[in-house]
């Protein structure tokens, strides 16, 4: 156990100290049991780690939780996390009795997800508002619970879960510390994105003291690709094209290019799309089904890519967002570039 220095307890985000939210959330959890834990579709490192960390915390409090996601497959880079094997897929009829003594979902904690659309199938089993809470750092889309702690400045949802746990002075064992470290190192792009704060470094230093291994975790997440994935990354890099006088750079992979199994392993290409001098916005577009594209937006500048993604029914953060678009490469790229051009000029 460690005690936060008082100046950190007083840090204020969005007008309220962390501790006020953490306290409220702990008061919600304490009298309850039989929790559903869930996160956004295509769960990433922060979504998975925040859910896992919450499950470990609930267990330490003597409570029971089932993790159910929309996704049929979960990124195998995170298989080292405790409870990874217990992540259930909604469409495969999860066994509630195995995890919940009551056999039913009574309460829910939604993590790293701004609204119903991003929950996918899980939106079908959302309990009444008074029995649910949301902890997230995306711009909010729907109300999902009676308490909503939404902090758009937080680096990651996992960093917010840390605040909730430390509010109760619970011991961080190695499994919990590794989950917290994973979510933060993932969502900050190993402490390189603009969302990285001294607070994240502080938390991760504490987690390293409690048994998280920074070398092992960073390498597992970022530097252990399959042979096929690295070849695909190479094809993506050689596809690079620029638009709007070099302000926008595009990496494109066709359906035939996508030969690697784990799509999570090539998402680094999104970050390469803005790793170009003079570039302001990067697009990583891949054809995940014939004539159906997944698009990742990255912004280096003041351009809010969440706004652009929203035009195409997607969303995310101001500097990193995504959407899905139907159509052929030749039609969707000009559509997106035109939208960016109009947003830059307005
Ligand atoms: Mn996140």
Secondary structure layout:
Blueprint: H1 6-9, E1 12-13, E2 16-17, H2 18-29, E3 35-38, H3 45-60, E4 65-69, E5 88-89, H4 96-99, E6 107-111, E7 132-136, E8 147-150, H5 157-166, H6 174-187, H7 198-209, H8 214-222, H9 227-238, E9 241-243, E10 248-253, H10 268-272, E11 281-289, E12 292-299, H11 305-311, E13 315-316, E14 320-326, H12 329-345
Parallel strand pairs: 3-4, 3-6, 4-5, 6-7, 7-8, 10-11
Antiparallel strand pairs: 1-2, 9-10, 11-12, 12-14, 13-14
Helix pairs in contact: 2-5, 3-5, 3-6, 5-6, 6-7, 6-8
This protein binds manganese (II) ion.
What key phrases describe this protein's structure?
single chain, 346 residues, alpha/beta, inorganic pyrophosphatase (n-terminal core), Diaminopimelate Epimerase, Chain A, domain 1, 2 domains, six-stranded mixed β-sheet, 14 strands, binds manganese (II) ion
Could you explain the architecture of this structure?
With 346 residues, the protein is of the alpha/beta class. The protein folds into 2 domains: 217 residues, inorganic pyrophosphatase (n-terminal core) (Alpha-Beta Complex); 119 residues, Diaminopimelate Epimerase, Chain A, domain 1 (Roll), CATH 3.10.310.30. It contains 12 helices and 14 strands. A hairpin with a 2-residue loop joins strand 1 and strand 2. Helix 6 runs antiparallel to helix 7. The longest helix is centred in the C-terminal third of the chain and has 17 residues. It is globular and about 55 Å long. Bound molecules: manganese (II) ion. Manganese (II) ion binds next to loops.
